[in-house]
Amino acid sequence: MKLLQNIRARGFTLDGYAKHMGWHVETVRRYCLPADHPKFQVPRRRQMREIFVDTGGLVTPNDFYDLPELPTAGASIAEGGPRAGEAAA
Predict the structure, then answer these.
(1) Would you give the distance in Å from CA 89 to the centre of its chain?
(2) Residue 10: which residues within 8 A CB-CB, separation 6 or more?
(3) pLDDT, tens digit, for every residue of 23-74?
């Protein structure tokens, strides 16, 4: 779950969440921007941990990266599934 989704689901504004966390609103805004936005910022380790704890684990470090969706069906690599760069059968 993206941080902005979590903030909205909990009824916070960006300003309200910033106050809740003890951060500047601009910091929260940068964390919530799309990953390809020039002002987007990935939280540092301490802030990432605080976000993870505050959201009950719903927002994770991976949520700040524009990672592709992985197929859920099929075998794992250990079970003979595709490796990086290989197409799934």
Answers:
(1) 30
(2) 17
(3) 999 999 999 999 999 999 999 999 999 999 999 999 999 999 988 888 876 6
Structure tokens at 20: 């809740």
Token pair recorded at residue 12: 């916070």
Instruction: Take residue 13 and report the two structure tokens written for it.
Output: 């504004």
3-state SS of the chain is: CCHHHHHHHCCCCHHHHHHHHCCCHHHHHHHHCCCCCCCCCCCCHHHHHHHHHHCCCCCCHHHHCCCCCCCCCCCCHHHCCCCCCCCCC
Look up residue 45 and give its two tokens. 């380790």
Q: With a threshold of 0.85, does the pTM exceed it?
A: no
